[in-house]
Fold this sequence. Notes:
elongated
Amino acid sequence: MNSRDKQAEKTKNAILEVAAKDFLSQGYQATSTRKIANELHITQPNMYHYYKNKKVLYMKAIEYAVGGFSEGLLSVYKENKDQPFEDLILTISTYMIENFRINYFMMRHDMETIFTDEDRKDISKNWDSGYYKVMFNIFQSHKSELRSDLAIPVQVGTFLTMLLPYIEYNDAKRKRNIANLNTMVKIFIHGIQEK
């Protein structure tokens, strides 16, 4: 790769990094591509040379953010996979809350109101190949300890549905959510009924 190609790659990644931060915290509508370009000290046409429009930039920025997050998550999983199920779920969930900065409900709203079914499939594919795969591996490797009348994908989906509100962009909220995470994991695993 020559120096021009290296600079182009560096610029593309810088655009994705800033775009991901803005899109994941503010949402699609509130994020200005002009602001992204200004923050990077490049022109909007230069940015559109790499990503042809705002929609493409959004999808590539999400892919970029999820890809980087997924690599870290997989690494944490590999380092801790011998922990007991409850401890491992807590470790992985804590990592997710600490490291995946996102306004999830804003992103869901954006996906439902702005993107086509085909776009949503592409975005979902990125999510599924990332954090869902790690969670599925955890549940699958501990399936002898889990209820056999509920399929693993159902268990994973239910857990992630419970976890998603804990994943926030705001630092103070994330710290509070980590402090309360142990209770949520216990309720998920052991239920709330007296035995």
